[in-house]
Design goal:
Length: about 240
C-alpha cells in the first residue's frame, strides 16, 4: 500500500466513501475521514506555523473571549496542499449543501466548482482567505462557535488534526453541540487521530420531524487540553470580508 503522501490530494479525495460521509452528515451533522493527510504532511504544516510570512493575521483567542490558544489565517496564495483540499473537497459537499438549503427553504445555492463560489465571495467584498491553523497548549480550549464571515457562507467545513493524541497532547477533543427547537442541546465528541479530518455543519442543518423538516443549530469547539500541544488545520470554503 502506498504511503498517503505519495497519493495526490485529488486522488485521495476521490477515493473517499462520499455516500457514507453524506449519510453521517445527515444523521449527526459531522463525518470523520480517516488518514486524509500523512504524518509527514501534518508535521510539515506544524513546522510552518512560526513562518509569519505565510499568514495574513494572528488571533490570540483570550483577547476576544473565544477561549485560550491562538490561530493564524493563511494569506493568498494558499499553500498547494490547502488549495488542493479546498478545490477537491468542495464539489462533493456542494450537492449536500444545496439539498439541505432546499429542505430548509433557504434560497442560497452553491455552484459546482469552488473557484466559481470564491468568485461570488470576492464580488461581494469577501476577499480574505479563511483557511487557518490553530495552536493550543495545556489549559487552552476553543469556545463553542460558528465560523460565519459574511453574506456568502458555505454551510459545511473541514478540520484536520495535525497532532497525535496521546503522544503530543491529552484532552483537547473536538466537540459539537446541536440545539433542536424546544429541546435540550445534544453534544457530539469526535475522536480523531493525526491526519484524520472531520467534515461538519457550520451553522445549521435540516432534521426530519413528525411534522416535517426543521432546522437545528450547531456549534463546534475544542475541550480543554490536559497536557502537551495540539495543532489543527481548518479548511473553510468561503472567504471573509
Amino acid at each position: 500500500m502506498n504511503d498517503v503522501a505519495e497519493v495526490s490530494i485529488a486522488d485521495r479525495v476521490k477515493a473517499i466513501d462520499w455516500p457514507r460521509v453524506e449519510d453521517d452528515l445527515d444523521q449527526f451533522g459531522c463525518a470523520v475521514i480517516e488518514r486524509l493527510l500523512a504524518p509527514s504532511e501534518c508535521d510539515a504544516l506544524i513546522d510552518q506555523y512560526p513562518r509569519d510570512a505565510l499568514y495574513r493575521s494572528r488571533v490570540v483567542m483570550e483577547r476576544h473571549g473565544f477561549g485560550r490558544g491562538e490561530y493564524k489565517y493563511f494569506g493568498y496564495p494558499l499553500p498547494d496542499l490547502i488549495e488542493g483540499l479546498r478545490t477537491a473537497v468542495y464539489p462533493h459537499l456542494a450537492p449536500v449543501a444545496n439539498r439541505w438549503n432546499d429542505i430548509m427553504k433557504i434560497d442560497a445555492r452553491y455552484p459546482a466548482r469552488h473557484a466559481d463560489f470564491i468568485e461570488r465571495c470576492h464580488r461581494a467584498g469577501q476577499t480574505r482567505p479563511t483557511p487557518l491553523i490553530l495552536q493550543y497548549h495545556a489549559g487552552d480550549y476553543n469556545c463553542l462557535h460558528q465560523d460565519l464571515y459574511g453574506e456568502h457562507v458555505f454551510p459545511i467545513q473541514l478540520a484536520i488534526l495535525l497532532s497525535e493524541p496521546g503522544r503530543d497532547f491529552t484532552g483537547g477533543e473536538f466537540v459539537m453541540t446541536e440545539q433542536r427547537p424546544h429541546m435540550q442541546s445534544r453534544a457530539e465528541v469526535v475522536p480523531l487521530k493525526q491526519g484524520d479530518a472531520v467534515v461538519f455543519a457550520v451553522h445549521h442543518r435540516p432534521m426530519q420531524g413528525t411534522r416535517g423538516a426543521y432546522r437545528v443549530n450547531l456549534r463546534h469547539g475544542v475541550s480543554r487540553l490536559r497536557s502537551g500541544h495540539r495543532h489543527t488545520l481548518g479548511v473553510i470554503f468561503h472567504d471573509a470580508q
